[in-house]
From TrEMBL:
Organism lineage string: Bacteria, Bacillati, Bacillota, Clostridia, Eubacteriales
Domain IspG C-terminal positions: 258-348
Annotated [4Fe-4S] cluster binding sites: C262, C265, C300, E307
Provenance organism: Eubacterium pyruvativorans
Name of the featured protein: 4-hydroxy-3-methylbut-2-en-1-yl diphosphate synthase (flavodoxin)
Any single biological process term in GO: terpenoid biosynthetic process
Reported cofactor(s): [4Fe-4S] cluster
């Protein structure tokens, strides 16, 4: 399930049944045109579909204008505090504007941004986070909580909806995975706008991936989320790579190859850890293997034959030997040292003749 409403960011659709879109954000100095352009290109090559760039001041705005002219990548201008930067970015060709209306200033300033976006049919992402909840909402609940975060997001959506502008995406982020999840569940029941989801300030590579997998994965499996950003304290290319992997394991994108392998136990009589790694590496390096193949690498007779038969291809280990299985049928028994080559040969021959 995705949000009912849909927006277009250059040539990318968000919501309304469109596939989940991967975003990231440059962390090069926004005043460094060369560094920003290079990072946009690297993000695109990694599979990023929309790139957000911070525009904090006039110098950064001029760089944004130049970058816009030199890339076809969909670009989002990230604006805080200064409404003039939002208007300038829209005039410079931004494909979407990200604002938190609460820190833009008066209603008139927000309306100036909305009017400029309306003239150009540019979507606005209304973004709030746990650190920007309005004082009166905090007083109402006593502290930051899911209800407070959702109420803040919905209030800011309504502010722009009341200006008769509906080309909107909503985001509400917390570094607390549970709070983030609960806030989205509350808000999703009250709006049909597309959701940009993620765990803000998730942390370093190891911890950030764990939090993002739990937080983003839970929302997507609940049917909430139309575009995602994995926030890591790292090269943003790593955000894109992990986002792709996350969408694959959830089943929202087709993986190049899916390896099903057992965790091993005392019954295993072949080196299943090495074999599984070698199979995965060989398949990823083989250009004529179709995407989406499911390959099982199993270590013993307990679950091995059944799992291997459920996959497109499989190996089921025995005592220093193993079975090669294709499309549910046992083809041959080969020594352990020949399992890898026999499996790859079988896959290539079968797929070539398919």
């Amino acid at each position: 399930m995705s949000s009912k409403k849909q927006v277009r960011v250059r040539d990318v659709l968000i919501g309304g049944g469109a596939p989940v879109v991967i975003q990231s954000m440059t962390n090069a100095d926004s005043r460094d045109e060369k560094g920003t352009l290079e990072q946009v290109a690297r993000l695109r090559d990694a599979g990023c579909q929309i790139v957000r760039i911070s525009v904090p001041d006039r110098e950064a705005l001029e760089v944004f204008r130049s970058v816009r002219q030199k890339t076809d990548m969909p670009l989002v201008a990230d604006i805080h505090f200064d409404w003039r930067m939002a208007v300038g970015a829209a005039e410079a060709g931004a494909d979407k504007i990200r604002i938190n209306p609460g820190n833009i200033g008066s209603r008139d300033r927000v309306k100036a941004v909305v009017d400029c976006c309306r003239e150009r049919d540019i979507p606005i992402r209304v973004g709030v986070n746990s650190g920007s909840v309005e004082k009166d909402i905090l007083e109402k609940y006593g502290h930051v909580c899911p209800e407070a975060l959702a109420e803040s997001a919905l209030r800011n959506l309504r502010l722009i909806e009341d200006m008769d502008y509906d080309n909107l995406v909503v985001s509400m982020k917390s570094s607390d995975v549970r709070m983030n999840f609960d806030a989205h569940r509350i808000a999703a029941a009250k709006t049909e706008h597309p959701f940009h989801i993620g765990i803000t300030e998730a942390g370093t590579m190891k911890r950030g991936k764990l939090k993002s997998a739990a937080g983003i994965g839970a929302l997507l499996l609940s049917g909430i989320g139309d575009t995602i950003r994995v926030s890591l304290t790292a090269d943003p290319v790593n955000e894109v790579i992990f986002a792709r992997e996350l969408l694959e394991v959830i089943g929202l994108r087709t993986p190049q190859v899916e390896i099903v392998s057992c965790p091993t136990c005392g019954r295993t009589r072949i080196n299943i850890e090495k074999l599984a790694g070698d199979v995965e590496q060989r398949l990823l390096e083989t250009p004529d293997i179709p995407r989406g193949l499911k390959v099982a690498v199993m270590g013993c007779v307990v679950n091995g034959p059944g799992e291997a038969r459920e996959a497109d291809y499989g190996v089921c280990g025995g005592d220093g030997k193993g079975l090669i299985i294709a499309k549910g049928k046992v083809l041959e028994t080969v020594p352990e040292g020949q399992l890898l080559d026999s499996l790859i040969r079988t896959i290539r021959e079968n797929e070539r003749n398919a």
